[in-house]
Amino acid sequence: MTFVLKMKTLKYAAVVAGGVILSVWATLAQAVEIKPITSPGGINALLVEDYTVPLISVSYSFKGGSTQDLPGKEGTAKLLTNTLDEGAGEITSQDFQIRLQDNGMGYSFSAGYDSFSGGIKALRSDREDSFELLRLMLNEPRFDEAPVERMKASRLNSLRARQANQQYLTGKAVRETLFDGHPYGRPTDGTIETMGALNGDDLRDYMSRVFARDNLVVGIVGAISEEEAGAMLDKVFGALPAKAQLTEVPEINIETGTKKHIEFDTPQTNIRIALPGIKREDDAFFAGYLANYVLGGGSFNSRLYEEVREKRGLAYGVYSYLGTYDHAGIVGAGSATRADRAQQTVDIILAEIERMATEGPTAEELEKAKKYIRGSYAISNLDTSGKIASVLVAIQQANLGIDYIDRRAEYIDGVTLDDAKRIAAQLFGGDPTVITVGRSVE
Fold first, then answer.
1. pLDDT digits over 295-332, tens only?
2. In the CATH scheme, what is the homologous superfamily, with its name and number, of domain 259-438?
3. Mean pLDDT, residues 357-380 taken together
């Protein structure tokens, strides 16, 4: 079965210091087939064949993430993102880096709360060597002591620097307050103590538990046939364990209402406000997404921006967002302002949250939000093969269905004003947690 994605790709130019980089996507308003494929070895993926340019992008994700760091070994998944390319198989770290550079492929690894993800972008002519390098990194990383210690030192330096970083301390306070006692409340980057104690055996143990075929999703885009993609899947992922050994992560119902100030000697105060949210699979997700856009997710077009910056000049930036995780959901808002203006800013944000809860968006605001969100999706998510591959992974992670991209506009248009008002009352009607980090004002 295939599904046709109607997409438009755009010409754009990025001006960089010292020169101009021009990137062009020449295909306009063409139809692209999203194919669900299964490799000969039984590995599933979504594939978009596109021979416009001789590039192949592969994105993949393992369910797990930092929640699978063992207690006392926080930061394992993050350190793994830095060490997978530090030698693999019979190739030592320095020689492996040379081989990666000679190949020229782009690659990345990342670890969030709920998943460990990665991706590569390779020329079609170099695909076999690129896939082999990826196979080695995911199946046979060396974790030799010297490169592991080097990567640890870099992360430890970052952790030490963050102890004096106001924004980091604010995020830490929010996480620990909202997710107290839950794996989401633990530091994803670890601590100086836990990071300092990690070694290659900890990285191998994490991989043995998390990197497996049953918790893997893959998206492939570019100049590669279905047969070639199937062979790649088996080559890169086929030798992984059949089943992951994940530690169960419990659901958590966010409790809010806490008011907390953390003293920090700086002229500016960071503000964070949070309420219980909804998860991505909630039927009211798009209604909540639109209501949040009106409140503060729409940046220059939002109520918070109008009230905090435009009318009063209290802060340069102010925002709100929906935080959706596998086991929890939050609604957040934030800003940063002078210490002597912090309480006024908090009061205005809380007043706008309360107004959204009691009144909801207006019909005009809702229509403007729909128009923007419909139009911006392709520009933000479908303008490169790498982004499309990531979208294919996200579709599978959230079980959105192969027709999600084309039906997304229908979901948005289907939100009525009553729907938006109803979810606004639910999301914004509680007792918020308010956390401020900065200098107390006498």
1. 999 878 899 999 999 999 999 999 999 999 999 999 99
2. Metalloenzyme, LuxS/M16 peptidase-like (3.30.830.10)
3. 94
- Nearest one of 79, 95, 189 to 136, comparing CA atoms: 95
The domain ranges of the chain are 3-237, 259-438
